[in-house]
Design a protein that fits this description.
The structure is a homodimer.
Chain A: E1 3-10, H1 14-25, H2 27-34, E2 36-45, E3 48-51, H3 59-67, E4 79-81, H4 85-88, E5 96-99, H5 111-120, E6 124-127, H6 131-135, H7 137-147, E7 151-152, H8 163-170, E8 176-182, H9 185-197, H10 201-210, H11 219-222, H12 225-239, E9 249-250, H13 258-266, E10 269-280, E11 283-294, E12 308-313, E13 318-323, H14 328-345
């Protein structure tokens, strides 16, 4: 018998829908390979919810419906206009909250409220949204711990690039001494274009925007804040910290000039935006800054929108992992992986 | 209370001693972080065994003793000259066999006998030795399965490079469509030197031998057999196969010429010895051969003695992991990781 897990999916944008698509596409495979039967109990979006009756919602059908222009609260007989996640959590019997609402780095809402309600009601959490975790890591983890609730956030720490898995599982028993990551695809794309073509930051940014790689307001990426948020979550998890992101020295890439690039190349280096963390005698040192990496550094060849992370350890040497889709499907696949780990491995 | 696991360590060469050293160095850490208390019940080497009485053997002390010129069977009051692993397994109460005897690719002995005795007596197995697994994978796995015995062999599939972890854990829920690996440090060193310096294979081999990177008889490495054995174990594990290694098309690097290297460079490529596996409509295609990788291939920058492996997946894109010590300590750290996974995660 497969293990049934009832899911409440909050947020039905690109990542939420990609997750529902994966549930549909992988149903047979999850059952056969992992003995796992996820059941979509409810989907919540801005205008309301769709709530299953006896069978669970058909994840493919609700996704088709919304992608054809419908809204969640009008889905077949299951739509409940105006119903919120806060209403649902606690009233609908479920095991796991999958949180994919848009990240809000001011107050973490609405995801923060969803997190707290899930913890209160003893639902485990799988999050793509990094807002509440970045803003309020210690309190959320403490509450979750008291309630025996697990929280997983692979999708918030570089999507399909298995940053935390490599740091937690692949290096189990080794001591991580330093972490360096290229954690943001947009800035790596801009720096790669500048390095290859000698162009100005503004020109590379404009191209990235035209290609949809950078947003119209690129601040979060180019000022290094997205990289900071990811390295903070990674360092918190692996070093047992509870950093205030505002205290992490963060320099973005807006000041990198073609002359800097040329000087780096001349010296055999390449400039990358690096989020780094290391434990020193004076405590943890976590920062974000453009750094000149030597050509043989394992992250030096990570180009364009690719990401990568490198762990220096006491007994295993340096282990580096690169790649992984940054797309909604990549993020959804990371959440599906979290689901398998959580349910089947307890990790 | 920490979980106590009684270990029989077979083979006390470089890797076995490095494992004992790690048990000593990591004792406190294993207890604090993983609630795990490994206990060294016996060590077996060529001339006999050392068998614990009430407390377990002190792993640091027996390693010091042997590194100062002693032999296992003469260790303090615990030495038992002539006692073999086959004698011990089943007579000494233990949970896990750690197998680090030298790999024998003719008949797998003595490790094959140790494996079978461990399975018979329901000890889980953590192996650095790939002989029995390469030669007799299906039979060993079937017997282990019938007995409820787990077998882990990270150290046999590229030491501290987490080849199997990334393929099993980091990509859980995704379908692996293709695997490509640089799995042998010696051949990668030789090819890297040839690529950089334009030198002949024989000259690069001689340098590698002078540096202790290649063995006096380099056949296993340079003919691609070590790479073959590793890709066979990886493909067997991840694709559920039971390949006969003799049927894997294997070309080594002895025929690679400076002219090949120059032609590859001219085309913007770099030649690497690649072990690859993919599932095709006609079944699995597993092979070992020198391949010209484009400069932006994620394994193209893996140079000198470094190794790496790249997984192409359906939902996560391509994920590549590189690095990890190839030393005895790296192999021992991989076995310690297997121990933690096995005992604490059941994976």
């Amino acid at each position: 018998m497969a293990i049934e897990k009832k899911i409440i999916l909050c947020g039905f944008g690109n990542v939420g829908r990609a997750f529902a698509r994966l549930l549909a596409a992988k149903e047979e495979d999850l059952n056969a390979r992992f003995g796992l039967a996820p059941r979509l109990e409810a989907v919540v979006d801005i205008g309301g919810a769709a709530v299953a009756e006896e069978q669970g919602l058909a994840p493919g059908r609700i996704t088709d419906f919304v992608e054809a222009g419908g809204t969640v609260e009008k889905f077949e007989s299951f739509g409940r206009p105006g119903l919120t996640a806060a209403d649902l959590l606690g009233r609908v019997d479920a095991d796991i909250l999958v949180e994919t609402t848009p990240t809000n780095l001011k107050d973490g809402e609405p995801a923060r409220t969803h997190f707290m309600a899930a913890i209160e009601n003893k639902l485990d959490i799988i999050a793509a949204n990094k807002g509440p975790l970045v803003l309020d890591y210690r309190r959320i983890l403490e509450r979750a711990c008291r309630q025996g609730v697990q929280i997983r956030f692979s999708a918030a720490t570089a999507a399909a690039l298995p940053t935390l898995d490599v740091g937690r599982l692949c290096t189990a028993g080794a001591r991580i001494e330093a972490i360096e990551g290229i954690l943001n695809g947009t800035t790596n794309y801009i720096l790669s274009r500048m390095a290859r073509e000698g162009c100005a930051y503004e020109d590379a940014l404009r191209d990235a925007q035209a290609l949809g790689i950078a947003e119209t307001d690129p601040t979060l990426d180019v000022e290094g804040l997205d990289t900071r948020n990811k390295i903070v979550l990674i360092a918190n998890t692996l070093f047992g910290l509870a950093l205030d992101p505002c205290e992490v020295g963060t320099t973005g890439i807006t000041g990198v000039t073609p002359a800097d690039m040329a000087a780096a190349r001349e010296a055999g280096n390449v400039i990358k935006l690096i989020g780094s963390a290391r434990l020193t005698g004076n405590g943890p040192l976590v920062k974000v800054a453009p750094e000149a990496l030597p050509a043989d550094h394992p992250l030096a060849g990570v180009n364009l929108s690719e990401k990568g992370i490198s762990y220096d350890t006491d007994t295993m040497g340096r282990i580096t992992v690169t790649g992984g889709h940054s797309s909604p499907t990549g993020a959804a696949a990371a959440m599906l992986k979290d689901l398998i780990h959580l349910v089947k491995l307890g990790i």
